[in-house]
Amino acid sequence: MNKNEWLEADGLGGFASGTVAGIRTRRYHGLLLTATTPPTGRVLLVNGFDAWVETPVGSFALSSQAYPPDVIHPDGARRIEAFEAEPWPRWRFRLEDGTEIEHDLFVRNGASVTVLSWRLRSPRRGVRLSVRPFLSGRDYHALHHQNPHFRFEPEARDGRLVWRPYPDLPGIVVLSNGEYAHQPDWYRNFLYEEERARGLDFTEDLASPGIFHCDLAAGEAVLILATEGQESATLPQGASAEACVKSLRDAERQRRGFASRLHRAADAYLVRRGTGKTIVAGYPWFTDWGRDTFIALRGLCLATGRLAEAQQILLEWAGAVSEGMLPNLFPDRGDAPEFNSVDASLWYVIAVHDFLRTMEAEEHKVSARDRKTLQEATAAILTSYSQGTRYGIRLDDDGLLAAGEPGVQLTWMDAKVGDWVVTPRTGKPVEVEALWLNALWVGSQFSEPWKRLFARGSRAFRARFWNEAGGYLYDVVDPDHNSGTADPAFRPNQIFAVGGLPISLLEDDRARRVVEAVEARLWTPLGLRSLAPGEPGYTPHYEGGVRERDGSYHQGTVWPWLIGPFVEAWARVRGGTRQAKREARAKFLDPILRHLDEAGLGHISEIADGDPPHTPRGCPFQAWSVGEALRLVEVVLAENRDKTR
Q1: Is 547 helix (H, G, I), strand (E, B) or coil?
Q2: Shared-domain flag, residues 537 and 573
Q3: Residue 60 and residue 132 share a domain
Q4: What CATH number should be reported for the domain holding residue 439?
Q5: How far apart are CA 437 and CA 441, in angstroms?
Q6: How far are the Cα atoms of 245, 247, 305, 642 from residue 252, in angstroms, in the given order?
Q7: Which of 318, 365, 309 lies closest to 345, judged by CA?
Q8: Where does the pLDDT of residue 331 fall: very low under 50, low under 70, confident under 90, or very high at 90 and above?
């Protein structure tokens, strides 16, 4: 079966997702998944459906489900003749009697509303469609099981049906032009193959209250699913299902006039938080993470001209600075934010710099108040880091930044299983120093004292991180705070000393040697490996249970987002010429863009296996992967930005 996945996001943190084959393989796949406290508090309300068609010849399924041990039933997936992802998911079914049916699905941006429709591709008599929806009402990380508390009975209101499965969850509003027949039942033991492969619980029971029957011979059949309280603006009282679908479809078709598939993908990650904006790190299981937001913002917003949204995001996060740190994560359930990240705040400084520079280049004004807010947040970060803050983050005598305590994961290589921090990287990690020095350089643009510290730290960086014997940079200096030692593991973090940040920290020869070594040992068509093959601990495949997967997360697993700093460094050491950019596009960017047609369709995956064929893994829709590809397309490799011909 085709395992490629599709995604429809609502701009609030909720979404619909599934597979091209129509078989749900993850607990997160569903038709109506809403964020009750955008972008968090996600609950899955409508998981899926069974659909079948009756013609004069017989009954034919249009859907398939997976059940234990490995049973696919019914057989609708085999009737899929074609699938299109743009402008929204569309399936074409061919039945054995020659009947052709087209099925569309899209989510309305800015509202928790999913629209499903079915139509005959050519007139045909005696064709009736039946759709049996499957409901739950659960946290999106959980699984649902048969219980006596589920409420099957709907409330009829203004031509719609409203289900309230559980009292503490929003209701499910359904508007259809079909006839509803109440036939409540439990469907048990749906099997989710991707959950089983990840070593997690993988079966679920869903409730089905009844069946919608539609006469396809009379016209298009529509089924609109909405979260109660969010449907009023898009489903006016008294409006027919057909009129609502036309209005919703026209609005979405007009809105989706994006410049490219990457621009379309970028739109999915920009969501509301409170009265402002933020960036969802990835679908289907991430919410908004600090470092992910600021890394992704440069591509998703700045490279695409969405400057107002970038400004909203940066201002929203400015208010979250605490002791010079920004949260690494806002938890789903409203708990206190987590600050276990040394680099999130530094990435924020870089994002602020790039935003202000882009605004200036585009001749847009930033108000004095907003500029002050951003600069004060930057100053607070630099000052607190210099004076010392959480988790042993402090300025050392050499001008570099020391960070880390036992049992805490602070860098982007942040996998932790129980008390096991897989790659602790305590001390002075190379990319943290590159970020720190770039942040000091940014601060020096509006505050003189940071200039001297930048100069001192830069000298120490060049002296202490260069591994002459290997021709590359150490990954960590003073590991575990043991002064004068270094970790020579060959990892991609060193590339940030040459690319991905405003300034390079290495001279020409050393910069080129680093880029060449990274290309030779880490580059794959889907990004950079997190550890070079042959290094102790290298793990070629990301698979198994939680411990096995987290243990391999940064031990060779490929990360597509790293293609951004790598390609920027590759072009930079070649003078940033038009020819260098064309070569980089053909060699490095084009393979990433081909990935838009696999795994998360139209998007770029979170990770991939370190060894060929570099199977995509992890989250199939990842913000910083898409963001860095966009930054390459629109900024780094844009030929109208070259230094020389």
Answers
A1: helix
A2: yes
A3: yes
A4: 1.50.10.10
A5: 6
A6: 10, 9, 20, 36
A7: 318
A8: low
pLDDT digit string (tens) for 235-262? 998 899 999 999 999 999 999 999 999 9
Cα dihedral value 434, 278, 525, 473, nearest 10: 10
Distance CA 55, CA 62 (A): 13
Specify the pLDDT at position 644: 34
Looking at residues 486-497, what average pLDDT do you find? 98
Q: How far is it, in rounded angstroms, from Cα 231 to Cα 173?
A: 8
* pTM, to two decimals: 0.95
Determine how many CB atoms are found less than 10 A away from the CB of residue 470. 12
Is the separation of the CB atoms in 506 and 498 below 8 Å? yes
- The answer to whether residues 211 and 277 belong to one domain is no
pLDDT at 642: 46
The tally of domains found in the chain comes to 2
Domain end (from 255, 278, 304): 255
**Same domain as 354, residue 238:** no
**Same structural domain, 308 and 440:** yes
User: What is the DSSP code string of 568-626?
Assistant: HHHHHTTTT-HHHHHHHIIIIIHHHHHGGGSSBTTS--SEE-SSTT--EES-SEEHHHH
- The amino acid occupying position 96 is E
CATH number at residue 108: 2.70.98
- R_g of the chain computed on alpha carbons: 26
66 and 24 in contact (C-beta within 8 Å)? yes
Q: Which H or E run contains 63?
A: none
Structure tokens belonging to residue 289: 């993470």
Give the torsion through C-alpha atoms of 22, 23, 27, 31, to 10 deg: 30
- For residue 544, the tally of other CB atoms under 10 A from its CB is 15
Confirm if 628 and 561 have CB atoms less than 8 A apart: yes
d(Cα 351, Cα 442) in Å, to the nearest integer?
10
Q: Check whether residue 76 and residue 211 sit in a common domain.
A: yes
My answer on whether 267 and 237 are in the same domain is no
CA–CA separation, 296 and 619 (whole Å): 15
Instruction: Outline where 466-545 has alpha helix (H).
Output: 508-521
Look at residues 408, 401, 454, 459 and name the one whose alpha carbon lies nearest to residue 429.
Answer: 401
Q: Are 64 and 75 in contact (CB under 8 A)?
A: yes
**CA-CA distance, 47 to 208, in Å (whole number)?**
10
Domain span at residue 463? 261-641
Q: Quick one: 300 and 349 in the same domain?
A: yes
Q: Which residue, chain included where needed, has tokens 């490995």?
A: 70
Backbone conformation region of residue 620, classed left if phi is above 0, alpha if psi is from -120 to 50, else beta: alpha
Per the CB < 8 A criterion, the answer to whether 144 and 158 are in contact is no
Choosing from 196, 221, 255, the residue where a domain stops is 255
Q: What is the DSSP letter of 101?
A: E
